[in-house]
Prior knowledge:
218 residues, alpha/beta, 5-stranded mixed beta barrel, two-stranded antiparallel sheet, 5 helices, globular
Amino acid sequence: MMLKHEICAMQILLVAATEFEIAPFIATNTNFEVLITGVGMPSTIFHLHKHINKHKYDAIIQAGIAGSFSNTLQPGQTVLVKQDCFADLGFEETLNYTPLFETGFANKNEFPFTNGWLVNNNDSFFAFDLPTAKAITVNKVSDSLLQKQQFIKNFDADIETMEGAAFHYVCLQENIPFLQIRSISNYVGERDKTKWKMKEAITNLNEALSSLIKKITN
């Protein structure tokens, strides 16, 4: 679903999986075009690619919530994602998980990948007062301790989402400057939502997003 707004001088598209994640920004900023892709990688790739084939942008920003693997990134904290990957693309055999790029079935340095990662090398977008993070993207979230341990072992990532790598993949393929911004709502594996900090994460995400866009466009 696309939410039409008046476009600012610098052509920026704001992308999110769900509208509620960026509702505060939408309510107070009327000069941006917003694309709501839906949850997950397939929906993100399809809707984003379809949209940018019809419209031209100077930059695209993806905003949303994420789960944290580490106590160093706590619920409510906001980060900029430096690199992302399709973490559950691989082989699982006898409780052992091998990422696709470690199986020999794919070249981990074939464009747009760098050592198996989708890296944002636009350093000008990281000159802001926010920490950077390494992310992984998965097709499902769960409370599986084994899955969590497998991802930590194979990727040593800071956060987990369901759309980030898809967003990086499209932007890198189309050579469009991009930035992924995420706020931590919970720790990975914690399915008791009473312990999540969803409200705080969304508030902080939208405040950081507003500040970030002002700095980019000024």
